[in-house]
Structures
1.
Amino acid sequence: MLLEVKDLHASIGGKEILKGLSLTIKAGEVHAIMGPNGSGKSTLAQVLAGREGYEITAGSVSYNGVDLLDLEPEKRAQAGLFLGFQYPVEIPGVNNVYLLKAALNARQKAAGQPEIDAVSFMRLVKEKAALMEMDQSFLSRSVNEGFSGGEKKRNEIFQMAVLEPTLAILDETDSGLDIDALKVVANGVNLQRRDDRSVLLITHYQRLLDYIEPDYVHVLANGKIIHSGDKSLALQLEAEGYDALMAKAAG
Amino acid sequence: MNLDPNNYRAALANTLKQDADAGHPEWLLPIRNEALEKFLKQGFPHNKLENWRYTNLAPMSERSNASVAQPAAVGDVIVPVTDSDSLTLVFVNGMFSSQKSSSTSVPAKGIVSNMAAQLDTDGAEDWLRNSGDSDLAQLNLAMTNDGAVVQIPDNIELAQTIHIIFTNTAEANVFPRVIIRLGRNAKATVIEHHISNAACVSTAVTNISCGEGSRLNYQKLQEEHARSFHVAAQTIKLAKDSHCDIVNIDLGAAIARNDLRILLQGSGAEVGVNGLFLVDGERHADNHLHLEHQAAHTRSRAHYAGVMANKGRGVFNGMIHVLQAAQKTDAALNNKNLLLTQGAEIDTKPELEIYADDVKCAHGSTTGQLDAASLFYLRTRGVPQQVARNMLVQAFAVEVVQQLANESLREYIQNSVEQRLNELVAVIET
C-alpha cells in the first residue's frame, strides 16, 4: 500500500473542510478525485503536501508505511511525494535550474546518495525539458516568473519529470489550459506512468481524464468521498452532473 | 553633544604641519581652517535634525572626539579582490600606499592618482573647495590626509576598472575623499571600496562630475568592521546627455550612513541607482538619496533593497525633487525591504517634490517577510526549509549585486553577500 488515508478530518481557521476522507492508492495506480468547487479537493492536496495552517483534527495518512502527517513538507518530497500546484508560484530571482538542482541534491542526500554531477544534471534537465516540449531558455529563467498559465503547468510536469516522484498529486493541472497545452501536459504525465509510480489527479472536469486514463475515479463532496468507481464514473458525472450524484448519496 | 574644539584644533594643527612638511600648496591652509570652524560651529548632526531623525551619531562623535587621531601604524592590511586589469589605488588608515597600489598610468593626460600627489595640478583648489555643504564634509575637508583623484579627459574611454580601496587596520579616524571628473564623452568604471578589520571611524566624501555625454559606472562598497562607523556624503553632478550607473552596497559597520545627492543638471542626463543594505545584530544603516532633476528630459531610476534581521535597523529616505525647469522628467524610485526576524526595523520614506507640470514620477516602498507561498512551493520540491529561506533572501538581494559591472568584483561581492545572508538566515528562529 503506497498511500492510505483514513477518516481524515482537517480544518482551517476553525472551519472543517475535510470531514472523514478515506482513500487508498497502490503502487502504479492512477486515481482521479473529482468534485465540485469547495468540496475540499485542493485542501486534500495541500494537506498531503504539508502546507502549514491546516489543523488535522482526526484520522491518519500513511505513506509507504510511515506517518506522512509527521513529516515536514521537504521530507515528504524527499520521500517521493510531488505536488503539482493549481497555481504555481512565481519566484523572481530563483532560477528553474537552480531550484531543481537544490531539490535533486536534497533528495540524493536524504537517500544517502552523492550529489549529482553537473554534466549528468544538465543532461537530465535538458532531456526532460525536451519531453515537455519546453524551450531551453525556460531553464535559466526565474521560477514561473512571467510564464503564461500553460507554461506554468507545463513547468510543473517538467519538474515532476526531473524529480521522478513515487506519488504525484496533480492539483487541477488542466485548469487554464487550452486543448493543445492540455495534450502536451497530459502526454508528459502519461510518459511518466510506471508500475512503481502512482498519480492522484485532482480535477473539476472530466476533460483531463480523456487524456490521462485513471484506474479509479472518486467523487469528493462536502469533505468526503461519496462514491468511487472506475473511469466510467467520470463519464456518468459529466452526463448527470454532481448534483444528481450528491442527491443520490444523501438520499 | 560634547565636542571639545581644542581636540579638533590640535588635530588640525598637526595636519597643517604635515601639509607643510609635505610641501603642499599654501592655499590649503585657509581652506582647512575655514572648514574646521564651520564644522565646529554645527558639530555632529543630531537626532533633532529632520534628516538625522533615525540615526544617532553620538557614539561616533564620542569616539571621534576622544581620538581625532593621526593615522595609526599599519597592521594586517586586507585588500579585497582586485583583478589584474584594474587600476588600483590603496589607502591604508587614510594614507596612500604606493606599494599596494598598481601602476596607474592613464592615456592622454588623464589622472588616476592619490590626491596628495596632485595638489599642484590646475584646478586642485576647486576640487577641494567643492566639498558639498554637509557639516561632516567640512570635517573631512579639514582633516583629510589623502584620497583618490580620477580625471578622464574628453573623449577618452578607460577600459580598465579603477578600484579605489580604503582599508583600515586600526581604531583610528579616517577621512577618505574621492574626486571623479569625467570630460565630455569620457567613459569610466570606478569602484570605491571601504573595508576594515578594526573599529575605525570613517567620514568619507565623494565628489563626482560627469561631463556632457559621458558615461560613468560608479560603485560604492562598504564592508567596514562591525564596530566601526561609516558616514559618507556623495555628490554627483550630471551634465547634458551624461549617464551614470550607481551601485551602493552596505554590508558592514555598526552605523553606516550614506547621503547620496544626485544633481541632473543638463537635459538628457540619466542616472540609475541600485542600493542594497544588510543589517543584522545591532547594526544600523541609513541611506538618504536625493535626486534633483534640474533640467528637462532627465531620467532617474532608483531601486534600494534592504534586509534586516535581529535588532538591525534600516533607514531609507529617498527624495525625487523636480525643479520647475525640469519638464518631461521621468523618475521612478522604489525601496523594498525584507524583515527576517521580529525586532528588526525599517523606517522608509520615499518622497516627491515636484515643481514642473509635465513629468512622470513614481515612487513606492514595500516591506514584508519572506513569502509563505514561495517558501512552501520550494519545500514541496524537497528543498529544506533553511535552504529555501536562503534562496529567497538571496534572490531578493541578487538583483542589486548583478548590477556590478566588473566580473571578478561581482563574484567577490556575491560571495560576501551570500555569506552574510547565510548568517542572517541562520538566525531566523525555526
Note: Chain B has one domain: 5-370.
2.
Amino acid sequence: MYEFTYQKASSLDEAKEAYGASDEAKYMSGGMTLLPTLKQRLARPSHVIDLGGVNDMSGVVIENDKVTILARTPHAQVASNIELQRVLPALAKLAGGIGDPMVRNRGTIGGSTANSDPAADYPASIVGLGATVHTDRRQISGDDFFLDLFETALEEGEIITKVTYPIPDRAGYMKFPNPASRYCIVGVMVSQRGTTVRVGVTGAGACAFRVPEMEEKLACEFSPNAVADIKVPAEDLNEDIHASAEYRAHLVTVMAKRAVAEAIS
Amino acid sequence: MTVKFSITVNGKPVEGETEDRTLLVQYLREDMRLTGTHVGCDTSQCGCCTVHIDGKPVKSCTILCAQVDGCEITTIEGLAKDGELHPMQNAFRENHALQCGFCTPGMVMSAIGIVDRHKDESLDEKTVRHELEGNICRCTGYHNIVKAILAASVTMNKNA
C-alpha cells in the first residue's frame, strides 16, 4: 500500500468535513473492496476516512411493503435476518453468498454499492429489485445508480446512508461464483412485483445492468422457458482468465433461468 | 503518519502506535511476534490469517490496525487456557486434521466461528464444508478437518 492518512469519523458530518479538507480522500466502510485495491496499489488516496465509528448506520428494517438496509450493515447480519429471510429470501440469500463468512462479518452493503465492482453481488439486487439508494443529500433510483466500471452516480464526497427495496411478489437470485474469490462471474436477480418484472445482471458487464428483452418475456410468462432463448450480446461484456465474454453471455441466460426457477419454487 | 490505538490481544491490553497503513496481521506478527497467525495469499481468499475481532472471525490481512482500536482480538495463541488445548485444537490433533499445518491456525479460528454460529442446532457435514469456504488447505483434502470440526462442535456445545 502507498502511504495515506487514516481518520476515523464518529459522525457523517465529521466524515464529510475530513473529506472536504483533504486532496484525494476515500471513504471506507468494511474495507473488503477498498483494502485489497489499496494493497494492489490500484488506488492512491491521500486520506482514508473510516466510517466504522459512525453510530446508527447498521440494521435491517422491514415495513409493510419495503425493506431498508442501513449502509453499514454487514452482509452476515443481512443474511441471518430471520424476518428478511421470510419477506425477501432472495436478498438474504444474496448477502449470504458474498465472499465467505469472514468477509461477510466485515463487508457492508454501502461499501459494496458505492464501489460498483463489476463482480459484486449487491448491484444485481439494486437493479433487479428496483431499489433506491439514499445518500446524505438525496435519493437515487437504482436504475440510475451504476454508470460504469467502478463508477456510480455518487457525487464528490457523497455518502450512502441506506438502501430501500420494495418487497416483490417473488424474486430469485442465482450466481456462478469464481471458486476462489466467490465474486460473481455472473449473477442474476429476477423479481416480479405486480405486472413489473426486473432482471438485474452483475459480473457480466462493466457494471450491473437490466435485460429488457427478458423482462418483457417474463412479464407475459414467468417461467424459466420464457428466457431460455434470449441471449445478451457478448460484445462489451467482461473477459478475463476466468471466463470469456461469450461464456459470460451464455451464463446470463443460464443464471436467469435458474433465478426464475428459484423465484417460482 | 502514525496512529495510536489500544486493543486487547488474547486478554492482555496493548497500547500501540504504528503506521496508518499497517495491517492487523503485520502488527500481530511483526510487532507482537505472534507468528501463529499466518499470511497465505494476502488477498483475503485463503483464510490463514483469520483471527477473532470481538468474537467474530475476520481476515487480519484485510483490516488496518487503526480500524480495530478498542477491539478485543483473539489469535491462535490465545485459545489454549492454562496449558489445556481449546476443544477445537484438541479435535484437530485427535483427528489428524492437518498435514503441513500452514492453514491450521486460520482453520481453527474459522472453525470456532462455525460452531459459534450454529450453537442452537447440531452441525452437519454439509454446513461445515460450506462455511469453510473462506479457508484453503492444499494438503488434506479437508476430510479430517471437517471431521475435527464436527467432533469439536459436540464437545464445545457440551461445555457451553
Note: Chain B touches chain A at residues 1, 3, 19-21, 23, 42-45, 47, 50, 56-59, 62-64, 66-67, 69, 110, 113-114, 117, 131, 133-136 (CB under 8 Å).
3.
Amino acid sequence: MATDHTAFLPPPVVSAGPLAWMRRNLFTDWRQTALTLIVLYAVIRGVPPLLGWLFVDATWQGTRDDCVANGGACWAFVSARWGQFIYGFYPADERWRVNVTFAMLALSVVPLVLPMVRGKGWIIGFLLTLYPVLAFCLLYGGVFGLPVVETARWGGFMLTLVVAITGIVGSLPIGILLALGRRSNMPAIRTFCTLFIELFRAVPLITVLFMASVMLPLFLPTGFSLDKLLRALIGVAVFNGALMAEVVRGGLQAIPKGQYEAATAAGMGYWRMMGFVILPQALRLVIPGLVNTWVAIIKDTTLVLIIGLFDLLGIVQAGVADANWLSASVTKTGYVFAAMGFWILCFSLSRYSMYLERRLGLGASR
Amino acid sequence: MTAPVLPPRQIFWTRRRVKSLVVQAVFLGGLAWLFYFLFANTTANLQRQGIASGFGFLSQRAGFDVSLSFLPFTSDSSYGRAFWVAVVNALVLSALGIVLATVLGFGLGLARVSKNWLIARLATVYIEIFRNIPLLLQLFFWYFAILRQLPGPKESLVLADLVILNNRGLYMPRPQVDQSGWVIMVCFAAGLCMALVMTLRARQQRLKTGHGPKCWFWWPIGLFALPLTAYVLSGASLSFVIPELRGFNYRGGMLMLPEMLAALLGLGFYISAAIGEIVRSGIQGVDRGQVEAASALGLGRRDIMRLVVLPQAMRIIIPPLATQYLSLAKNTSLAAAIAFPEIISIVAGTTLTQTGQALEAITLAMLFYMSVSLSIAAVMNFLNYRVLRHGN
C-alpha cells in the first residue's frame, strides 16, 4: 500500500544565501553557537584596540615625546632609523651597492615565481653560484675600484639577507655531499657522515655559533684569524648543511632502484650517475622540503645577534635601547616592525612552497 | 663426461674494491691529519694564552649568583653545581613548554578542522602568525616589550586578589600543608594508580569481549574524592599562602620570574603553532571512509573524533610531534638571550667568560643537548612503537 510521504515533509529550510551559510558554518547547534558568540566577543574586544594602536593613535613623525603623548605605535622611530635598519652601519655613500645587490636578487626571484617563465633552472643556477660571488664583491669591495667596506659595518636587513643567503647557498652542497656520504657503500665515509649529521642535528644552532665564535680561533694556527662574520657564516652553513642532508636523503631514498641500475648499465660512473640521473630527480622531489628548510634558515639568522652581530633584530634591539628613544611604545613598535619584516619573508616563502607542492604534485599525478 | 660447471672465480681484489679501499684510506688519513692539525694548533694556542685545560674548574668556586634555581645555590657553590642548576632549569622549562605547546597545539589542530568557520579561521591566523616569526624575536617581544613594561608592584595587575602580575613577575598562591600533608599526597597517588588500573582492566576486557565496564567515574573518585576524604578525616590543614603587598614588593606565594614567563610563552606559542599544523594534517590524513563508517554506526561527531579519528591520527602525528618536542628542548637555549639562567647563559656565558675554558664549556653544553635529544628520541620511539603496535 502506497503512502504519500511528500504530504508530511516540512517546508524546505533556507539552503542558500548568507543566512543559510551562517547557520551551516557558525550556528550549527547550541554548542557551536555559544562558541561562536564567545569568540566573536573576544574578537570585537581585541581587534579595534590593536588597530587603534597600530594606526589611529600611532605617531608617524616626531620625537619620543610625541609618541609617548599619543600612546600608539611610534612609526616615527622606525622612519628615523630606517637607514640603519636596512643597511646597518654601511657608509651612506656606498649604500647604492647594497641596493644593486637587492635589485639583482629581486629581479631573479620574480621570474621564479611566475609560472609561464621558462629556463628557471638557469636562474636557480645563477642564484646559487654566480650571484653570491657577485654580491660579495659588490658588498665587500676591493675589486672594480670599489672601496672596501669592513664586515663590522654590515648590519640590519642587509646582514640578515647575507646570512640567510649564505646559509641557503652554502648548506645545499654540504647537505648533498653529506647525504650521498650517508648512503655510500664505503663504511668509513658512511660512519663519518652519519655521525656528523646526527651530531649537528642533536645540538641547537647557538652552540654551533658559539663554537664558531670562541672555539674556531683556538683550532686555527697562531696568527691566522678569520673574520667574525665569516666564522658565523661557516657555522650557519655547516649546521644547516646537516639539516639539509636529511631532506636530500629523503629524496634519494624515493628514487627507484631501477634508476641506479639503468645508469650503471649505461656505463656511468658514480659521480656521473649521481649528477645526471639521480640528483636531478631527487632534488626535484624534495623542493617543498628544501623551501621549508629555507624558511627555518631565515628565522634562525636572528641568532647571530647572540654572538654580537647586528642583523635586523640585533639592530632593532640596539635601537630601542637608545636613550633618546627609550620608552614602552618605541620598544613595542621596534619589535613589531622587525616581526612584520620577518613575517612577510617567511610567510611568502612558505606559501610559495605550498604552491610548488601542489604544482609538483599535480605534475606527478598527471 | 663433461666437467662440472664451476661458478666464476670470485676475485676478492676487484678493481672496484681496491678503489673503494683506497678512497677510504685516503679519507681516513686526511681526517686523522685534520684532527692532528687542529689538536696541535689548539694545544699551542692554549699554552700561548695560558688557559688551563681539563674539567678541574668544575670544582672551583663559581662566585656568581643565579636568579632562578631549584637546587640550593649560592655564589660560594662550585661551577659544577652551577652546571646542574642550569640543567634543572632547562629541563623544567622544556617540560612546562612541552605541556603548554601540546595542549595549545591539539586545541589549535582541532580548531583548524572545526566546522565552525570563525574558529577555523582564527586558528589559521594564529598559526600563520606564530610560526612565521623567529622564536628569538617572539621571546624578545614577550620579555622586553610586554613583561618588562608592566607597572611596578604598587600598580600590579591583580586577578581576584590571588594572581598578581607586575614587572617583577607573576605571583600565585602557594599551597602549604602541615606535617600530615603526606597522607593526602599518598591518597592522591593511590587514587591515580587505582583509576589507571581500572581503566586498563576495562580496556583489556573490552578488547577481549567487546563489552567493557564503564570506568570514567574512577577518575574523579581517585583524583578528588579520595584525597578529599583523607584531608577531612586526617584533619590535616591545607592552606594557601597568598602573595601580599608589603612595603615595595609582594611577599609570599609562588613567583614566576618574567624571564621564565617570557621563555615559556614564547616557546609554547611558537611550538604550538607547529603542533597545530601537525595535528590538523594527522586528522585530515585519516581515511574519509573511517568517518563515514563510524557515522553509519550511529556515533556522534564528538565520539567519531575521540574514538575513531584521533587514535588513528596519532600514528601520523607522533613522529613529527617528536621532532617538535626535540626542537622545543633545543630552543630553550634561546632563552639565554632574555637572561633566563639555562645551559647557554650559565655554561657558555658566565662560566666561559670567567674561566676562559671555551673548549670544555662548549663541550659540556653540547653534551647536555645531545643527551636530552637522545632521551626524547628514545621516549618518542617507544611511544610510536606502542601506538603502531597496539593502536591507541
Note: Chain B has a mean pLDDT of 84.
4.
Amino acid sequence: MRGAVAGDQAASAIKSSVVTFQEIILTLHQFWKSHNCILTQPYDTEKGAGTFNPATFLRAIGPEPWRAAYIEPCRRPTDGRYGENPNRLQHYFQYQVVLKPAPADPQDLYLQSLAHLGLDPYQHDIQFLQDDWESPTLGAWGLGWEVRLDGMEITQFTYFQEVGSLEMNPVTVELTYGLERIAMFLQEVDTVYDLAWTEGVRYGELYHESEIQWSIYNFETADVDMLQTSFDRYEQECQQLLEHPRGLVLPAYDCCMKCSHFFNVLDARGAISVAQRTGYIGRVRNLARKCAQAYYDQRERLGFPLLHQNVPTSNKTIRKKMVRGM
Amino acid sequence: MAALKKTQTKSKGISFRKPTATSLPFLLEIGTEEIPTTFFPQVLQDVLALGQQLFEESRLSYHTIRTVGTPRRLALLVDGLQAKQSSRTQEVIGPPKSASFDASGAYTKAAQGFAKSQGVPVEQLTITETPKGLYLAAKKHERGQSAKQVLISNFPQYLARLTFPKSMRWNASQAKFARPIRWMVMLLGNQGLKIEFAGIRSGEVTWGHRYFRAKGEKVVQGVTLTNAATYVAMMKKLGVLVDPDERRVKITAQIAALVKSAKGQLDPVNCEELIEEAVWGVEYPHSILGTFQKEFLALPKSVLISSMKEHQGFLSLVGKDGKLLPKFIAVTNMPWGNTKLITKGNERVLSARLKDAQYFFQEDEKQPLHERVSALDGIIFHHKLGTMSQKVERVRDLVGWMAKTLDRDDLKDVCERAALLSKADLTTGMVGEFPNLQGVMGEEYAQHDGEPHNVCQAIGEQYLPRFPDDHLPTSLPGKLVACADRCDSIASFFAVKMAPSGSEDPLGLRRAAYGLVRIIHETALRLNMVDVFEHILKILAKQGVGQNDPKTTADIIGFILDRLRFYGRNTMGLRDDVMEAVFSVRPKHAVDVGDLLVRAQALQVMVSQLDFEPLMIGFKRAHRIVEKESWHDTSVLPERFQHDAEHQLFRILETAQQDVTDCVTKQEYAGALQILLTFKSSIDDFFAAVLVNDPEPHIRENRLSLLTAIDRLFLNMADFSCIQSAGTEIG
C-alpha cells in the first residue's frame, strides 16, 4: 500500500501517560519483530553510528538476504557539550533497522512504526527531505532522506548504493531512528536530560554525569600520544589479521572500528589538523574497504549460506533454522 | 561492391496521412518516493522533452503536451494524440544507375544486393534523380501502427534515457532513477496500457496524497483512473495539486494571509528561493504561522535567519522598521492534519535550534577575537601552504602595502587590524555550526569586543562578493582586505603550481579572481596588479613557499586578464577583439584592471563610429609600411617635406600628441580616440599626394619617420590591427 497506516492502529498505541524511553525501544522491537527482523544486539565496540555495527556494515555486503533491528549506543566525541546543551550529547542511542533486499514498501512500514509509537501520520506533518548519505570512513554512500516530523529530524532513511566501496546488489535499506529526538517529541520535554527513561527515572540521572566526564576526557585530558599510537597499532593489527591464513575478517573489522573511534577522539581533542584529517579518514576507509572485500570473499567461499536458508523477505514467519544458521 | 558501400539510407519525403482514427488524450504518471526538490523543475522539462521526442520519432502528432509533477509523481499529459501512427513512404537511395546495370542491361550484383538489403524485389527498384546523378532507389511503404502499440513498445527505452543529478538502484531490475518508482499509470483515452520499466508494471491505479483519506476510509487507498483527460481534476480530489503553478499560487496566497495576520512583512531575504523550494516539496501546501521566544531576538539577525532558513526552510518576517519579528512561516504538506500540533512541533524545533545558537554565541563571546588569532596556528590553510596564521600574516602585510600605495596611510592601521582579526572567527563555535556565517560572525564579535567601527565593517565585508552578482564591500578597508585575501589565495596556489586547469577549479580561484576584478573595477580602485602579485610572491618566498620569479607573475597576470575578458564580455558587453586591442598594448610592468576596461569601453564606442573604418584603411597602410621597413626613428624634419599634404599631416600630429597625452592623463580615452579620428582625411591626402618611397633617401626616410610617429601615437591607445572590420565581425 502507498498510504499511511490506519488511524485506529495509531490511536491504540497512544498511552494515557507518557511513553517512556524504554517503552519506545520495546515498541520498535515488537514492531520490527512482527516484520521478521532479527533483533540483534548492540555491538560491544565504540562506534560513531549504528551503521558500523557488523549487523549493518558487513551484512549489507553480498547477495545474502538480511533483516535486522537493534538499538545502538553511539559515540560522537566532538558533539559533547559538558551536559550543558539540551540537545547535544557525545553518547546517544540510535535504533537501527536494515532490510535486504529493500522491500517494495519501506516508507509505509516506517510510517506504520511511527503510528505504533503514537505518532499518527494523519495528524502530523511528516516529510521526506533529500539527504544524500555518505560515510567517508566506511567508503559507503546511499540516497534517501532525513524524515522530518513537524519540522524535526527524527530518522535517516537510506538506500545503500555502496558499502566498503562495494556496489550493493541487492540494495539494503537502512532506517536510523534518533531515539532521543523521538522521545523528546513524544514526552514534550525541552531537554534530553528530562526524558523519562522509565517511570521515575530520568535520562539525566543515567547519563548526565557521564556527559560531563566524557566531555572533559574527550576535549581536555585524552592522551594524544596514546591515541595516536593506538590508532597506528590497531591499523597494523587489522592488516595482519586480514592476512592471517584463517581469514580473521571479523576481528580485523573490530580493529577498523577502533581506529575510527580513536580518530574521533583525536579530532575532539583538537589533535588533528585539517590537512591530517583527510589522511586519517583515508586510512580508516582503506581498512574498511579491505574488510568489506575480505568478508565478501569469505562468504562467497562459504557459498553465501543465507541464500539457501529461505530467509523471508516479506511478512512471513521466520524459520528457526535460519536463526540457527547464524 | 563499391557502389553498395556508398548506399546511404536517407529518408526523403515522409508523407503524413491524415489520422484515420480520432485523437485521444494520453497520460503517463510515474509514482515515486520523494524526489529531491532540487531536481525540479529540470526533471519535468526532461520528461517533456522525452515525450516530444518519442511522439515525433514515432510519427504521432498531438495538440498539446505538458508535464506536471510533485515530489511523488511525474506526469506527462497529452491532449489530442493521434490514435494511429501516420503511414509513410520512404525512398532509400542505392547504388548509382551506372553501377546497377551491366552491359546487357541486367541488374548487377550491387543492384541485387541493395534490393535484398531493403527487402524489395529487384524489379520494383526505381531510378531517381539526385544532385549527384541518377541512382537506384527503393520505395518502402510503412503502414502506421496504432498509437497503443507504438507507445507500449517505445516508452520503456525512452524512459531509460532519463538522467538525474544523482540516481540510485533499489530493486532487482538494477534500473536507476532519482528515487524508487512505486507505481506507473499509462492511459490512452480510457484504456490502460501495460508497459514495464525498472521492474514496475504500469496500470490504471494511482495513489493520492500520502495522508489524505477519503471520507469513511481508515487508510489511503489506491484509486483507478478512468480517463487521461481528467487527471488533474481527479488528483485534486485525492489531495494532490499536480500542477506546480497551482501550488505556487496557493502558497503565495496562504503566506500573504498569514503575513497580514502577523501584522508584518515578509523578509525579502531568500523569500523567493524558499517558496520555490516549498512548491517542489509538497503535494498540497498548507502554510502555518509560528512564533519563537522574544529573547532570541538578541541573537544577530544573520544567525536567526540562518537557523530558520538553512535548517528549517522557514520564511522570516520583519516589522515596519525592518527588524525581525519573533515569527516565522513554514509550508507544510498537511492541510488535513492537526495544525495546532504541527505548529507547536515546528516552534519547538526552532526554539531548540536557537537555544543551540545562543549557547555558541555566549560561549564565543567569552574569548575576544584577538585572543583567538594564535589558534589559527592550528588550522591548516592548505598542506602545501602552511597554516591560516601564515595566510593572515601575508594578507596583513599586503593590505598595509596597498593602503600605502593608494596614499591612504591614514587607513593603514585599520586595514592591518582588520586583516589580523579577519580569520579569527573560524575558531568560534558559531562558525563551526554555520560555516556560511564566516565574516558575518567576525564582524559581530569584533563589535562585541569593542574594535573600531571600520575594523568591524572590514571584517564583515572581506568575503564580498560571495557569489557573482552579490553586492560589494563599501568601505575602503573592506575592499582592500577583500582584494588582499583573494590576491593572496591566487598567488599562493600559483606559487605551488596549483593553477586552475581546464574546467577544474577546486580551489575556486576563478571565482576569487572574478570577485577581485569586480571590486577593483566597480569601486574604481587603482592598483597595479603586477606590483601586487610581486609583493605577495616576495612574502611567500620569505615564508619558504615558491619563488618570486617573473614566470609566476606572468602566469598570474595572464589568469587575471582572462577573468577580465570574461567580465568585460559578460557584464559590459565588450567585444573580444576590442579588449585584445587594448590589452595587447598595455605596458609590461603595469596592469591597471579598471583602466584597461575603461579604455576598451571607449574604444568600442569609437569602433562603431562611421569614420572608424575609413580611418583604419589609412592607418593600417601606414602601419604596414612602418612594420615592413622596421622603422623606429620618429624625428621628423619639416624642411624636408615636399608637399602640403605632408605639412598638414605633421601639423595634426603635433597638436594631437599633446592633446592625446592630456586626455590619457585624465583617463578621458573617448576624447583621445576622437582626436585620432581627425587624422582620417590627412592620412588619406598624404597617401594620395605622395609616394613614401621617394628616390631621394632623406625624403623617403623623413616620410617613414612621420608615419612611425603616427603609428606610435595610435599604438599608445590600442593595437588597431586586432580590430575586426564590420564585415567580419562576429556577434
Note: Residues 223-306 of chain A form a domain with the Methane Monooxygenase Hydroxylase; Chain G, domain 1 fold (CATH 1.20.58.180).
